[in-house]
Amino acid sequence: MYTYDIFAATPCCQKRLTCKHCRRAVVDITRGLPYYSQYSRMILCPFCKANDYHFIRPLPETFSVQEAAGSICNSN
């Protein structure tokens, strides 16, 4: 089964639009890309020239998961 980051379809901040290699902005958030499907394509970084899937990131790199104080599955 695949995990798909639905939040990549509409970037929330400039950090989500950075190059995986040099960490500089590949796309300006004020302009964005015309179609959400373009965020899942390979794009050439204008600075370091890395051609990569810059906007597809592993979930742990994008979000932090914190365990709740009380567990709803507590058997006690």
From TrEMBL:
It holds the Pfam family Headcase. InterPro entries: Headcase, Headcase_mid. Residues 1-59 form the Headcase middle domain. It comes from the Eukaryota. This is Headcase middle domain-containing protein.
